[in-house]
TrEMBL record, chain A:
PANTHER family: SYNTAXIN, SYNTAXIN-16. It is a single-pass type IV membrane protein. The chain crosses the membrane at residues 273-294. This is t-SNARE coiled-coil homology domain-containing protein. Keywords: Coiled coil, Golgi apparatus, Membrane, Plant defense, Protein transport, Transmembrane, Transmembrane helix, Transport. The lineage of its organism: Eukaryota, Viridiplantae, Streptophyta, Embryophyta, Tracheophyta. One of its GO terms (biological process) is vesicle docking. GO terms for molecular function: SNAP receptor activity; SNARE binding. It comes from the Eukaryota. GO terms for cellular component: SNARE complex; trans-Golgi network. It is found in: Golgi apparatus, trans-Golgi network membrane. Belongs to the syntaxin family. Residues 203-265 form the T-SNARE coiled-coil homology domain.
UniProtKB/TrEMBL annotation, chain B:
The keyword Protein transport applies. Its main location: membrane. It comes from the Eukaryota. This is Vacuolar protein sorting-associated protein 45 homolog. It is found in: Endomembrane system. The lineage of its organism: Eukaryota, Viridiplantae, Streptophyta, Embryophyta, Tracheophyta. GO terms for biological process: intracellular protein transport; regulation of vesicle fusion; vesicle-mediated transport. The keyword Amino-acid biosynthesis does not apply. Belongs to the STXBP/unc-18/SEC1 family. GO terms for cellular component: bounding membrane of organelle; Golgi apparatus; SNARE complex.
Length: 299, 568
């Protein structure tokens, strides 16, 4: 990483220096940097140069998205497994699902934060346009992922609810069936014992399901927040902002605007009171220090 | 569908094999070509993170060598000059060049000479040299469209450019379709003959290898006609959705710019009207104004229901459902407001300019007989204060085109009245139109009064009555296409080029109108294609006309002709 950084700086520095450096130290008039550059370019077919630093961030985000996708496939399988009727109480399945869901949600949240902070570009340069477009595309991918996750969760939720209702129905049926069986007292007692055990089980079962649903709803809300934030970046398909020619025109106007803003900012900064204040304070500090030292020396 | 998918396929192939971050560089014409078929979000999917125009990119000095450059340009000498400058100071890592038409050998040599640093990885020709606005409708969007009106001696070099662009465009269409056609043209038009012969030379002699496709049983037919054979269609006011929007507001590359007619919130200033992306538009683009009103009302009602259910959020489940459906809801909202805005604005314009009244007379002039009644109606409208200048001009032109021979005195009266009423009217424009597109200059039977069969048909239609007075006009193109379907397109009117000949009916027909097409004609084409006649029609022109554009072309041509006459 550091090596890459150094190489990148030297390459860029080389390009700058080629323009401004005077050929003092070399007899045949070639600067060292120019030689390096020529060598790099003469390596047969053109080599694609090193990208700026933010590209690393974008690649990281893209790989996060990929990881999240893989995890989501796992989650889908875990959902399917948990919904199948099983003999055990399915605690491990629940925990697995919970763990996966929280992992994915956290991953998405982290990625979204990074996307909005690190990749935001300022200024009217072409590089910032590229950054903006990369940001848009990653935002679209991220949003699609969150929507998929939400859909999966809501279907799982629905199935869970369905199962809960079935369990409740079963309970009611059991309750309903009780008065009918008055014939056999013995059978009655045995039945009621069975019944009690079953009731207890389905109660526990329902409480579990309740908790799960609560958690899923929470994560759904979190995802909703992510989607809201991202929707600013994502392009609405079919509208005017999705047209290439509209974006080209806009770039032209924003570039001019940006230039004006930059010039204005430069002017105000130069006249800025802040710079004045800071200089005055620093001078005062030095004066005080000198006075302090003098005081020590004299006394 | 076929033209749109051909261009999309080309763009896809350009971007597919190149991995990594790309920048797409276009020129002012290819920007339109790509924008109507590919959207920005699709480009982002293909990792194209920057789109630039070639003239603006030459100004910047930023080096972005981590991007690969994909150039898609028309092979003009200007673009080659820009490319040479780019290649001698390359800003990007790699260069992939794609040209939208055939490159000359000299151009290739020039490019190769400038490529000292060997950044060019490939040079290919992808024949997407036309703007496919609708599935069966393409245009070349030529800025100076008026040269077709003038005779060749007036401005030979500009006319040559015009013809070259038209021939290139037609060649690209057939290369994209991978067919080589039999060519016919409109007898009375010199420029149609010239373009037909030049196209034949291109396809059968110069680039015979390129056009040598596998022969099917029936070659397709290329029919080249002149706008002046049917000057009535662009002058009429339209009442079907797409044509009406273009006539009253103006559609350019499937975009409508509303800023010229009033103040709108930021997201409604420019809207997109594309049948590919907007399902409501696709279902309603050929419907008339009354039906559209009803359909929009239905759409608004549906939307209001959805909005009401969205406000009724009580449980967490409802919230979750709302957030799930939010993107859909937003899209629907945008779509509904777009159409409602358009229809409202058009209604306002119809009210202001009293277009219902004017259009009734226009349709009568175009379709029915009765010179005396027509003269009276036109005079009344000319006297009417609220009719705008352009509408008056159109009425007089329509009257003149129909009754130019019948009563010269009354015609003169109308001219004088027009000149006195309209301040901005350029005198002699109507006469200029008559000279160019008068009865003896036209091929085909515009008013259906040349042979007995047509007269009989018209009388029968008159007796039967029409469904809608405002949409009773059928463009001349419709009759031409019907004759092609029946296999009865007359050789006298539309001769073959050279020794081409075709027995029976072709299965694919491309009609190229020099001077421009109208949306009314593309509607006829779509209707015939939908009627399963066994023939697929494609229509294209040098521009897409509305009455403003057509009149502007006439005025410019008249100006040039006049200055030329003065010089001589």
């Amino acid at each position: 990483m550091i090596l890459k950084e150094l190489r990148r700086r030297s390459l860029l520095g080389g390009l700058c220096k080629t323009n401004t450096m005077k050929d003092q130290s070399f007899a045949n008039g070639e600067s060292r940097y120019r030689l390096q550059l020529r060598f790099l370019l003469n390596k047969g077919a053109a080599t694609v140069g090193l990208p700026p630093a933010w590209v690393d961030v974008s690649e990281e985000i893209a790989s996060n998205v990929q990881r999240a996708r893989v995890k989501m496939n796992e989650l889908a399988k875990a959902h399917a497994k948990a919904l199948m009727p099983s003999f055990g109480d399915g605690k491990e399945d629940q925990q697995n699902i919970e763990a996966l869901t929280t992992e994915i949600t956290n991953l998405l949240k982290k990625t979204e934060k990074k996307l909005l902070q690190k990749l935001s570009a300022a200024g009217p340069s072409e590089d910032s346009n590229v950054r903006k477009n990369v940001q848009r595309q990653l935002a679209t991918d991220l949003q699609n992922l969150s929507m998929e996750l939400r859909k999966k969760q809501s279907t799982y939720l629905k199935c869970l609810r369905q199962q809960m209702e079935d369990a409740a129905d079963l309970e009611m049926n059991l309750n309903g069936n009780r008065p009918k069986e008055e014939d056999d007292d013995l059978d009655d007692m045995i039945f009621s014992e069975h019944q009690m055990a079953r009731l207890k089980q389905s109660e526990v079962y329902t409480v579990e399901r309740e908790r799960e649903i609560q958690q899923i709803v929470e994560s759904v809300n979190e995802l909703a927040q992510i989607m809201k934030d991202l929707s600013v970046l994502v392009i609405d398909q079919g509208t005017i902002v999705d047209r290439i020619d509209y974006n080209i025109q806009n770039v032209a106007t924003t570039v001019e605007e940006g230039l004006k803003q930059l010039q204005k900012a430069e002017r105000t900064q130069k006249q800025g009171g802040m710079v004045m204040c800071a200089t005055v304070l620093v001078i005062m500090c030095f004066v005080m220090l000198v006075l302090l030292i003098l005081k020590e020396i004299i006394f | 569908m076929v033209l749109v998918s051909a261009v999309r396929d080309y763009v896809y192939r350009m971007l597919q094999d190149i991995s990594g971050m790309k920048v797409l560089i276009l020129d002012s014409q290819t920007v339109s070509i790509v924008s109507v078929v590919y959207s920005q979000s699709e480009l982002l999917q293909k990792e194209v993170f920057l789109v630039e125009l070639i003239d603006s990119i030459s100004k910047s000095k930023e080096s972005m060598s981590h991007l690969k450059a994909v150039y898609f340009l028309r092979p003009t000498s200007e673009n080659i000059q820009y490319m040479r400058r780019q290649l001698s100071n390359p800003r990007f890592g790699e260069c992939h060049l794609f040209f939208s038409n055939m490159l000359k050998d000299t151009q290739i040599h020039l490019l190769a000479d400038s490529d000292e640093q060997e950044v060019v990885q490939q040079v290919q020709e992808f024949y997407a040299d036309f703007i496919s606005v609708d599935p069966y409708h393409f245009t070349l969007n030529m800025p100076s469209n008026h040269y077709y009106i003038l005779p060749a001696v007036v401005d030979p070099s500009n006319l040559q450019h015009f013809c070259d662009r038209a021939v290139d465009g037609i060649g690209a269409v057939f290369l994209a379709l991978k067919r080589r056609p039999i060519i016919r043209y409109s007898r009375a038009s010199d420029i149609a003959k010239r373009i037909a012969h030049e196209t034949a030379k291109l396809m059968y002699q110069q680039e015979i290898g390129l056009f040598d496709f596998r022969r099917m049983e029936m070659s397709p037919l290329l029919l080249i006609v002149d706008r002046r054979d049917d000057p009535v269609t662009p002058l009429l006011n339209q009442w079907t959705y797409q044509a009406m929007v273009h006539e009253l507001i103006g559609i350019q590359d499937n975009k409508v710019d509303l800023r010229s007619i009033g103040k709108f919130p930021k997201d409604q200033q420019e809207v997109v009207l594309s049948s590919e992306q907007d399902a409501f538009f696709k279902a309603n683009m050929y419907e008339n104004f009354g039906d559209i009103g009803m359909n929009i009302k239905r759409m608004v009602d549906d939307f209001q229901q959805v909005a009401k259910s969205n406000q009724n959020i009580q449980t967490i489940e409802d919230m979750a459902k709302f957030v799930d459906n939010y993107p859909e809801y937003r899209k629907m909202h945008g779509n509904v407001s777009k159409h409602v805005t358009l229809v409202t604005e058009m209604s306002k314009i119809v009210e202001e300019r009293k277009l219902m009244l004017v259009s009734e007379t226009e349709q009568d002039l175009a379709c029915n007989g009765g010179q005396v009644a027509a003269f009276e109606a036109v005079t009344n409208l000319l006297n009417n204060e609220s009719v705008s200048d352009i509408d008056r001009l159109r009425l007089v032109m329509l009257y003149a085109l129909r009754y130019e021979k019948e009563s010269p005195v009354q015609l003169m009266q109308l001219f004088n009245k027009l000149a006195s009423r309209s301040a901005k009217y350029k005198p002699g424009l109507v006469q200029f139109l008559l000279k160019q597109a008068g009865a003896d200059k036209r091929t085909g039977d515009l008013y259906g009064n040349r042979d007995f069969l047509n007269i009989a048909r018209n009388m029968a239609r008159g007796l039967k009555g029409v469904e809608n007075v405002y949409t009773q006009h059928q463009p001349l193109l419709f009759q031409t296409m019907e004759s092609i379907i029946k296999g009865r397109l007359r050789d006298v009117d539309y001769p073959y080029v050279g020794n081409h000949f075709q027995q029976g009916r072709p299965q694919e027909v491309v009609i190229f109108i020099i001077g421009g097409t109208t949306y009314e004609e593309s509607r006829s084409v779509a209707q015939l294609n939908a009627s399963n006649s066994g023939i697929r029609f494609i229509i294209g022109g040098t521009a897409v006309l509305n009455s403003k554009r057509f009149l502007k072309d006439l005025e410019e041509a008249q100006g040039i002709a006049r200055s030329n006459a003065n010089v001589v």
